[in-house]
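re: ur question from yesterday

yeah so i grabbed the chain u mentioned. its 404 aa long if i counted rite. heres the sequnce exactly as i have it in my notes:
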Amino acid sequence: MTTVAGFDPWSRSFVADPYPVYASLREAGRAHYFAPTNQWLIPHHDDVSALLRDRRLGRTYRHRFTHEEFGRPAPPPAHGPFHTLNDNGLLDLEPPDHTRIRRLVSQAFTPRTVERLAPTIERLAGELVDGLLAEGGGDLIAAVAEPLPVAVIAEMLGIPEADRGQLRPWSADICGMYELNPGEETAARAVRASLEFSAYLRELIAARRKNPGEDLISAMIAAYDEGDRLSEQEMVSTCVTLLNAGHEATVNSTGNGWLTLFRHPDQLARLRAEPDGLLPSAIEELLRYDTPLQMFERWVLDDIEVGGTAIPRGSEVALLFGSANHDPARFEDPGTLDLGRKDNPHLSFGAGIHYCLGAPLARIELTASFGALLRHAPDLRLVREPEWNPGYVIRGLREMVVEV
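ran it thru and got these structure tokens back, copy pasting raw so excuse formatting
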């Protein structure tokens, strides 16, 4: 059992640049117990990749154990609305429920559905970039990074335009519970958002049952397999998961990616010179270089061993995506940004049964927004050093002020 100084997910300086500490963690060993969160930190690419696929671990333990059997306290009853919403979503379910719901949702969330959205996504990205240009610049996060994925997922779900302003605040309040050791104030906000968002979606689902449309909610209502359908709670939880996962990561990938480019002017110049040919590999490299999801947690359902360290059932492992994506054992010269990198098995979208369902959509959105900015704002530049949000698990910028 080892510990490494410097791992401090509540420190602004660590959140701004965790990568030197990750290097120390990798050098010191393969599993490190972190007492403040009672978790085992896993920093190496091969271990993270293997544990994401290992069925001895799970996002939940409730399909096999009670809280008491697993040695964990039950969540406070006051947090119930958040857990009802969260525990019925794809992100936190395990087979057989995860398999059944993912199969049904996949009928609605097909590659063809996503591809059909590409022209709309490109149009929306272009309009947002035009708005930024008309203002002579501004906050890239608020002007482009945030509105694009929210508009896209709202369009997919069939949420009327007049209601979309509520989505980002609801999502931000719910996602606060995914940070390490969230406090009661965070929990209260998440509970309130869970209640309000769930009530809104139940009304929308009821309306779509009466008058189906071409949207994802209508498709989920119609999804049917061997006599099985999604329950209303499963649909509500899936919609919230798609919104939260479908835009939080894309917002932060956009901001983190542009900050990376501004800090590597030679690579930015390379991308500007060859946007069409280089953009697909550039998106993958930006996702690797500074991933928006730094940590993915899993419960140990049966005893495991990592690098000679025994991790018993009832423990929680924290898989460090940001560290895995910078592991020199898997990536050649990982500290160097190479927008043309060919061998790039980054883990930013996860792996195994919880691999991100929305990865194809995220790639289309990022390609559209980066492409529009490269084409229409060739002189885009950073006005001042941006400030990071305090969150570590879901890591991104509060704002990014640019000039065009």
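noticed a couple things. The mean pLDDT is 94. also The radius of gyration is 21 Å.
anyway ttyl
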